[in-house]
Amino acid sequence: MKVARLGVITGAFAALCVLSACGQGGSDTAAPPEAPEATTEAAAPAEAAPEAGPAEAAAPAVGAIVLAVTDAAGNAMSGDPARGARIFRQCATCHATDAGVNNVGPSLHGLFGRTAGTVPNFRYSQANQSSGIVWSDAELFRYLEAPQRVVPGTNMAFNGLRDPQQRADVIAYLKQFSE
Ligand code: HEC
Questions:
Q1: What pTM did the predictor assign?
Q2: What is the position in ligand 1's atom list of the atom closest to the CA of 153?
Q3: 95 shares its domain with 168
Q4: pLDDT for 27-58, tens place per residue?
Q5: Do 17 and 99 fall into the same domain?
Q6: Pocket flag, ligand 1, residue 64 (CB < 6 Å)
């Protein structure tokens, strides 16, 4: 819970940074309208702002992010880290997102690109260790729907998230804890 909130706070903080960066950019672009022949010149900075502002580029990280996962119709799915933080409360009874913190389940810090069953000092089931999974958006998406079906004999006592969007949101949330 605390960790989930922290994530949200960090996200909010990032949003504030984005906003303040936006403010700086805004004061730069606000200058031209004061120039005598502002009418035509003012249009240019306004158009330039979206591509010029780093704030614009950073914005999607605060909202939904596109995942390497396709839905049933074959379209790329997006996940919302903020919604994912709320869904993660179900996971947080067993998992922390801090590095090196193992509870009932292993730490989920740095999950992406990691081979299943390799967090140090955590006693995995044989089933998990020999699954051969390398955690990616797509593997997590498949696993979280029905962990016991994907890794028969796993110790993870969690039925799964049937809703594809909830899985995408949790994946987007977990990405914040992977470099
Ligand atoms: C009741 C406790 C519990 C809950 C709830 C739970 N897990 Fe787990 N999870 C575990 C355990 C225990 C393992 C180790 C499984 C094994 O060794 O077979 C695990 C393993 C994992 C792994 C594999 C990690 C690795 O290093 O191979 C991932 C990924 C994972 N859980 C994600 C989640 C997510 C996301 C949620 C919430 C949607 C969740 N878990 C909910 C207990 C839980």
A1: 0.73
A2: 18
A3: yes
A4: 444 444 444 444 444 444 444 444 443 444 33
A5: no
A6: no
